[in-house]
Each structure stands twice: as structure tokens, then as C-alpha cells.
């Protein structure tokens, strides 16, 4: 009687109690043995957790053994998943429609009830959650800019959640706050800023990082905006390329600047911003009475992976006294590679940089950074000095209480996994990883030119790991260019993707862009991917699209 | 030779190579044995990982055994930490100043280098990181609104990071997207909204949730703001109480509305907004030419834990056609308790609600939700329809691609740990947890009145788990009220806190508020905390402050 049900916080329902009592009787002997034994011996008594509920875990008295056993069993489940994800023989996904999952497949119910489940059932729920999810670590998952599963990064995440802390003050996160400082300095140095410049913060994703850059730029030119709002300012204009990420527009909408005041600058065939177009856009905007103040250049566009000409853009920004931001969310990783970092030449002239280590550097989601060249701006722009957090009469150097730099107040610890990966790989390890991903892209580019039925979306060798292409099924190969062919071709990628999802063998994205109908975009950011996977992808597209 | 160094991505440096070769020779025999054995046997050969680097982990060929062993060893470290955190005999923190940690304590170096470390060193780094951090799960950590370490929530986080996915589309996160839907509906029902209303999204923290509410409210009244910006709108005004969270002002600054257009409404002695003050503020603002559109009411203020009078505020909002938001980041958890949910009466009349399960419900950081009553607004307000993500020609119901509802684009999976905890506790389990925290607060409130040397900041019984008080050292007990006493009293809490940090035995926050000098704020959100911990806190304050 001094067992589970007494410690349980939900003892009201008599059915639950009765069931528990039955189980208790059945397993009482076993439980006693477990409680007597040390944790190592305990491991041999699996699965004793089937009689326990969550209130038997720590911090309940005597919960140590159950906790250890529960987490060990969880580890076995996660390890099984990790090992399976690494095998090419396993599926990337096992697709089900929303209604199928909602109806409950093989007893997997998403619904929540008033009563607790046993730990045994919790572990079953964990297994099912992984089973019906998408295996983003699979070497043949090419669907997103973030992929792969770095085991050191994973270890970092597990530790982070165990520490369960918050980035607002040094007081509660001394080590993580200092790691953030170390990493930000490191990244600023790699961008090419000098030791006496550079500031920044880890953000929940690249869009928020880009939003920060506009926010700080606006404050830099018009500090009164903080108290008085946009109505006290002239009508500002933002410039970004037509291939840039939609977060620039989204940020302008959120910040009360209006998405129509984001002016889209034309790109060349390979997706790079054309400097003279930027210059003439700025002049035209001024003539319309707008006040240009911010230019976003992109290092690694989302679809083509293009790098804007940073030095030319910096010259123009300098000439017009505009804030230059570089959105290197995707392309920043290339700075780690001696072979590829020259593609970002001129980035050091930017006043702010977005860089997402969770993309090209393989850090688990989320890990995104905004770097600001001028120190103190971020703090001035965002601080409100809430006294319940940021007391000035603390016994340590309160400049380490970085929470007031942020707009989020409480901030998830995204830094540790990244720090740990850097320790484990060294800067050089990240460089090798980037090189490998770009080699895969080059291999795909070569294969596309050699194989029948494939057509490149743009002819130049890709600069990043994005490769864009159409698959032309045999029946379409003789068709002349024109609207009829376009209409048919537009449907090919979605139909192949549909079949891919049903088969679950591989996953790749597609989209239209400008006047170009749906094409595949393959991206490489998972260092587990090998050339054989590239071959497999092309074979699979051919196999699935051959009859279209 | 076919071992580690060949698979290593950083083979360039000859010193590293040499060291590795030496190690290889030394451990070759051991390694061979490990590679021959199954994983269970392998466990007996600890620590073989000392010869490996991260490139030996999965997905490297043959990396399965090393991976298992590495993660098992990590689990041992984390389990050791978890067990220790649950013990009262352990310290809450082991304080070091920033410069001490930066200099490197006992070989723990934060600096990052070009070369990789061995897995053995990585595990040492993990141990050190935990060692110098703050134990937020300790039953005597009262410093923040989030505390405790829920083991099921932790399991959820570990699985989430293993799945390493992103919330933008159903395609890559089918299960998590549906869990978000289930949880949002559940929470909307608990708030009191009908089945045919309610929308929402998980956000990176309560500040961002509050920001969302203002963003959506602004769009609801002035949809043109999305494209044209704030300059196309009249000068809007926001109302919130002087005790409310600073995120309302911060959001107004970010959104380009200006922090001075956030009008602070007076509170009564216990920190509740005074409805007639709200009414007169609205009228006064209108007379000044401002356009009121949004009122933030608070359920559980940050310092006092006060609940605003929601029905009165709702009446005023209804009369003036204003958006009513309830910031229940801290107080939302009380909705789970039959005993306490009446404190939020009238919340169902709000048009939006912020609710952070990572606070009162004990979900690991971060887990915050914005609920919006009117469906579709969130999507309309934020969508930009990026075609590389949100294709309309997908083979499933694309209304499940919820990413375009968000401002973040990529979104961390914060939902699974919460879902898993709900499964494990049931709604009732959360209710019991909340009740227990509030019982601790009542116990502290009683003790403060019984013990000598303590003074309550406000006389009423606390509504939430916040208890605010001064400690008056013996030498100050005879002093008459006035500036001299205030000056001295103002220094008491910081000095006691300083000593607390040095001792590491307990951690509690303090702050001034309005005309009140520094006082302690104790909050209870960790279900591991018992009455004995409350007694300990008061004993410790007395012991540390007795001579001041």
C-alpha cells in the first residue's frame, strides 16, 4: 500500500486505482526485488516499469531505480531509431494522411485524456511517434536545408534539456552565457570582423535573425522609433533580391514597415542580385519619396544557392549610407571551408549577418545566429531593464546578463550543442563536412549532364550544394518549348514526389520559380550522404517518372 | 590503418595523426575485441571511446558500437546529474565569476580550436558543463517561474532532438503537426472557447506569444498594415497594467508601434488592474487623439502573481470594441486545477490568450502557446505563401502545412514533450501538480506571518504561487518607516542573495517594484519542492541575514 498509488498524484478514480492494485499484486514480488537491488542488477528485470506511472519517477522518494530503468529503455528506443536511420535499407518515411493518423493507426492514439498512462505505454507512444515521423537523418532525405543527425549535437541537446535552463541571466546560465560569447566571437572573426567590433545573439531561426537585423538597422538610423513608432519616421524602404528568402518581407510586415516597402531587386540567370539594378531601384525609390535604409544581400539563396556580389553591394550601400545585411543563413557554413569561403568575399563589409549553424553545419535544430557589427546597438535597441530579472545590484559583472539584448526575454539554450560539436570536430571538421556536401552537389551536377532525361534549371556549376533540375519523361522529350510543354512539365515533379512519398525511399523538394515551372531542388547538408545516394536519387526519379 | 584516422575528416595535422597512431597501437587489441562483440558485451569494455573521435560515431561505417557506447556513457552522466539534482543534500549552484570560468577551472576550457577532441574529452566537457551550471531542478531553486525537471518531459525532449524535425510542413513533421492541433484544441477547450472557434500556434516563449497577439489584433482591425505598414494607420494605443510583463512594451517597440503608446493602467494594492482606471485611460487616450485597439490583461503577474478582473475588463473591451488579450503565461496553469481555475473567470471572453506550459505546468523549456479565438486570422496575418515550402499541389490536405501561420518559418518542435507529459499525467495530474505548488505558497505565507523578522509586501493571501516579502534583520527591527529604513532595507535582499549564491544552498529572486524597495519573490513551480524546503529557505535567509 506504501507503493505507487500513494505517491500518485491522481488517485481519485477508482477504476485506475483498482487496475493499479491488480498490477501491484501481480508484480509486488518483482518490485520488491527491484527496490532491493542496485541499478545494474535492476537492468536485468526488464520491463518492471510496466507497473509504474510518471509519479514513480524522480523526484519521488525511491524513484531512482525506476527513473534509471525508464531512461535506459528510452535510450534503447532512441538508439534503435538512430541505427535504423543510418541504414540505407530503411525507409525515409512511411507516409499516412492526416485523417489516417488521427483515426489512430495500430492503437497509436494522439488523443489526450484526464487519466495517466503507465510508463510502459509512454514508451510505446515514443516508439510510435518515431515510427510515423519522417527520418530527417536518413542519407536520402534531401527535402530541407537542414538534414542529418549529428550524434555529438544530439548529445548536446540531451544535456541541454537535462540542464533545463534559460539564457536571460548569467545567474541561471553561467556556462551557456559564456559559451554564447565564445561562439559569437569565433563566428565574428570568421566573418572577418576585427576584435573590437561585433555583437550578436542566438535566435529561434533564420527569419527571426533577419528580423533582428532590420529592427537594429531601423533603430540605428532612427532611435526614436523605439518609443514613438513608425509614424514618427519617414516611409522607409528595404531592398532585397527577388531570389532572397521571404523572411525579409515577413519581417517588414511584422515590424510595421509594410511588405510593399520591400523592393525586390532583379537577379541574373544564376540567381545573383544585379548591382546596377540595386542602384537604380534605390534611386527610383528615392524619387517616389521613399527613404532607403537597408539592403539584404543573400549568401546562398534558398532555391538556387546563389551568392550575391557582396563587394559591389557594399560599395552601393556605402555610397548611399545604407545598412548592409547579409542573410547567410544557408551559405554561412561555407565560411568554414578554405576551398569555398571566397564565395562570401565582401561579407566582412556587412553591418549584420544571419548565419544558421543548423543548416550547412549540421547542428540539430534550432541554431541560428544574428551578428551585428557595431557593439551595444542590440542592447540599446531592445533593452527595457525589467527589474525582476536585470537587477544592477548583483554581485557579478551584469554585462553578462544578456537577456535584455533579446526580444524574447526567456531564451532557449541553443548554444551548447554547437559548442560541443565544435569541440568534437574542430573548425577543420566543419570545413571537411562542408566540402563533402559540395562534392556531392558537383557529382549530381555532373550526373545530370551525363544522364538522359534530365535538364538543368541554370547552366552554371552550382556555387552552393543546391542543384536544380527537371526530369523530362520519355513521352515529353520531343516536345518543342512552349506553354503546352510547360503545362505538362509543371505536373511532373509533384507527381514523382507523390510517388516518392508513398514509396518512402527518398525525399526531395520541388517548386516553381518566376517563369520556371515546377523543378526539383536537391540540397546536400547531411554528411552521411554518399555518391551512391545521388545515383539512387536519379535512378528513383527515372523509375517513378518514366511513365508520366 | 583502416581505423579511425582514415575515416577522420581532419587528417591533415601530423601531430594529431601521430597521437592517434600511438593510441591506436595501444588500444588496437581492445578495439578489435569490441568490434567483434555485441553491444551488451561491449558495455563491459569501458572506456573504449577514449580512442575515438566524433567521426567514428554513426553514420560512419561500423560506428554502431561506438555510438551506443558513447550515448550510454552520456546517459550515465546525465542520470548522475538527475539523481543528484533530486537530493536536498546537493548544492543548487557552485558559483564562479565570469572571469573565473573564462580562465578555465580545473582544465575546463571554453575555447574552441581547429582540431577535434576525442570522445573521452567530449564526455569530460559534458560533465564540466553540468558541474558549473545551475541546478534548476533542485527542490530549493526558487529563482524563476520555470523550475523543476519533469522526467517525462525530458524524455520528450530527447526524442524530439533525435527526430530533429521542423514544424513548417506536414510533409516533414506529420505526427508533431497533428499533436500541435490536438493540444491547441485541448487548451482552447480548457480556456472555455467553443468547438467552432480557436486557433493558435506554439511560440518561442511568452514574449513572442504576446507579440503575436498584438500583431494579429492590429491586422484584425487594420489588415492594410501588412502591406502598407504603420504609417498608413492612425496612432494606435495599447493598454496594460503597471504590474504586467514588460513584453507588452517590448512588442510595441518591435512592431513599430512605439513603447510610449503602451499606456500603463493603475493597479490596486495586490497588483490587479483597476477597471475604472482602464476606462478612464481609454477615454483620456482618445481625447489625446490616440486610437485604442488592444488591452492586455494578466493572469498571474510576474512579481505578485495577481489576476486581473477579466470580466470587468471584457465588459470595457466590449463597450469600446477593443481586442482583449490575456497574458496567462504564468497563470494559465491554474486552469488545470478545479480548485483554482475560478481565478481566471472571464478568460473565455478574451480574443487571444498566452499560456506557457513551461512555467506552471513544469514542461521543459521552451513551451509557450498563443491562442487566438477567431480562426484564420493568424494565417491571413502572416502568410506569404513561399512556394518552395507551401506548394498547393501536394498530395495531402495542405491546410496541415501550418508553417505560414508563423513568423518564424522554421519552427522548433516544442509540442512533443508537452503531449507526452499529458499522456503520462492526464489532465488531472497537471491539476494535482498545480495544487501542490499553491499549497507550498500558502504554507510560506503562513510561516511568514508566524516567524519573527519577516514582513509581507502585500497582506492578502497570494492568489498564485508568488509570495513577496522582506526580511528585516534584528538591528533594523526598531526603525521607524521612512527613507533611512528604506535605504537600508533596499540592500538587505541583494546582500542575502549574494551570500546565498556563494553558499549555493538555495536560490530565490528579489526586485524593487514601484515605491517598494528590494524584496524577495518566492515562486513555486517545481512539484519536487516540499514544506521542509520552505522551512529551509526561511531558516537560511535568517541565518545569512541575521548580522546585516
UniProtKB/TrEMBL annotation, chains A, B:
It comes from the Eukaryota. GO terms for biological process: gamma-aminobutyric acid biosynthetic process. The keyword Signal does not apply. Keywords: Decarboxylase, Lyase, Pyridoxal phosphate. GO terms for cellular component: cytoplasm; presynaptic active zone. GO terms for molecular function: glutamate decarboxylase activity; pyridoxal phosphate binding. The keyword Lyase applies. Pfam families: Pyridoxal_deC. InterPro entries: PyrdxlP-dep_de-COase, PyrdxlP-dep_Trfase, PyrdxlP-dep_Trfase_major, Pyridoxal-P_BS. Its cofactor is pyridoxal 5'-phosphate. The modification N6-(pyridoxal phosphate)lysine is found at residue 359. Transmembrane segments: none annotated. Belongs to the group II decarboxylase family. Homodimer. PANTHER family: GLUTAMATE DECARBOXYLASE 1-LIKE, GLUTAMATE DECARBOXYLASE-RELATED. This is Glutamate decarboxylase 1a. It comes from Anabas testudineus. The lineage of its organism: Eukaryota, Metazoa, Chordata, Craniata, Vertebrata.
Amino acid at each position: 500500500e506504501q507503493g505507487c498509488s500513494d505517491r500518485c498524484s491522481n488517485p481519485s478514480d477508482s477504476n485506475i486505482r483498482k487496475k493499479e492494485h491488480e498490477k501491484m499484486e501481480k508484480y509486488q514480488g518483482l518490485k520488491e526485488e527491484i527496490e532491493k537491488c542496485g541499478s545494474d542488477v535492476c537492468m536485468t528485470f526488464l520491463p518492471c516499469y510496466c507497473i509504474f506511472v510518471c509519479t514513480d519517477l524522480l523526484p519521488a522518494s525511491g524513484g531512482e531505480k525506476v527513473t534509471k530503468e525508464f531512461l535506459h529503455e528510452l535510450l534503447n528506443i532512441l538508439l534503435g531509431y538512430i541505427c535504423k536511420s543510418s541504414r540505407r535499407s530503411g525507409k525515409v518515411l512511411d507516409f499516412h494522411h492526416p485523417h489516417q493518423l488521427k483515426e489512430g493507426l495500430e492503437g497509436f492514439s494522439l488523443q489526450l485524456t484526464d487519466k495517466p498512462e503507465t510508463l510502459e505505454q509512454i514508451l510505446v507512444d515514443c516508439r510510435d511517434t518515431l515510427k510515423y515521423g519522417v527520418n530527417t537523418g536518413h542519407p536520402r532525405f534531401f527535402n530541407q536545408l537542414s538534414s542529418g543527425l549529428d550524434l555529438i549535437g544530439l548529445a548536446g541537446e540531451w544535456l541541454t534539456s537535462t540542464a533545463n535552463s534559460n539564457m536571460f541571466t548569467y545567474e541561471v546560465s553561467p556556462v551557456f552565457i559564456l559559451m554564447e560569447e565564445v561562439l559569437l566571437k569565433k563566428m565574428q572573426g570568421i566573418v572577418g570582423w576585427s576584435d573590437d567590433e561585433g555583437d550578436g545573439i542566438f535566435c529561434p531561426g533564420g527569419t527571426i535573425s533577419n528580423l533582428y537585423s532590420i529592427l537594429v538597422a531601423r533603430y540605428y538610423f532612427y532611435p526614436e522609433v523605439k518609443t514613438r513608432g513608425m509614424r514618427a519616421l519617414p516611409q522607409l524602404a528595404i531592398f532585397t533580391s527577388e531570389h532572397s528568402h521571404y523572411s525579409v518581407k515577413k519581417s517588414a510586415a511584422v515590424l510595421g514597415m509594410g511588405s510593399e516597402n520591400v523592393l525586390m531587386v532583379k537577379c541574373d540567370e544564376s540567381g545573383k542580385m544585379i548591382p546596377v539594378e540595386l542602384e537604380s531601384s534605390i534611386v527610383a525609390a528615392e524619387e517616389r519619396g521613399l527613404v532607403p535604409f537597408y539592403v539584404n544581400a543573400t549568401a546562398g539563396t534558398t532555391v538556387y544557392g546563389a551568392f550575391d556580389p557582396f563587394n559591389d553591394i557594399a560599395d552601393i550601400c556605402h555610397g548611399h549610407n545604407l545598412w548592409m545585411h547579409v542573410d547567410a543563413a544557408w551559405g554561412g557554413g561555407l565560411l568554414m571551408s578554405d576551398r569555398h569561403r571566397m564565395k562570401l568575399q565582401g561579407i566582412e563589409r556587412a553591418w549584420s549577418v544571419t548565419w544558421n549553424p543548423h543548416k550547412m553545419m549540421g547542428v540539430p535544430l534550432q541554431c541560428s545566429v544574428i551578428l551585428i557589427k557595431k557593439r551595444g546597438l542590440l542592447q540599446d535597441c531592445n533593452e527595457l531593464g525589467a527589474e525582476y530579472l536585470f537587477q544592477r545590484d548583483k554581485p557579478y559583472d551584469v554585462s553578462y546578463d544578456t537577456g535584455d539584448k533579446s526580444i524574447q526575454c526567456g531564451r532557449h539554450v541553443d548554444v551548447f550543442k554547437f559548442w560541443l560539436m565544435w569541440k568534437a570536430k574542430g573548425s577543420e571538421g566543419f570545413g571537411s563536412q562542408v566540402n563533402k556536401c559540395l562534392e556531392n552537389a558537383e557529382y549530381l551536377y555532373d550526373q545530370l549532364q551525363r544522364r538522359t532525361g534530365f535538364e538543368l534549371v541554370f547552366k552554371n556549376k552550382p556555387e552552393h550544394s543546391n542543384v536544380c533540375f527537371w526530369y523530362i519523361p520519355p513521352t515529353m522529350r520531343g516536345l518543342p518549348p512552349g506553354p503546352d510543354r510547360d503545362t505538362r512539365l509543371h505536373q511532373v515533379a509533384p507527381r514523382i514526389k507523390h510517388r516518392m512519398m508513398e514509396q518512402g525511399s527518398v525525399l526531395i523538394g520541388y517548386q516553381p520559380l518566376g517563369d520556371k515551372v515546377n523543378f526539383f531542388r536537391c540540397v546536400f547538408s547531411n554528411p552521411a550522404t554518399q555518391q551512391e545516394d545521388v545515383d539512387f536519387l536519379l535512378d528513383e526519379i527515372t523509375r517513378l517518372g518514366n511513365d508520366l
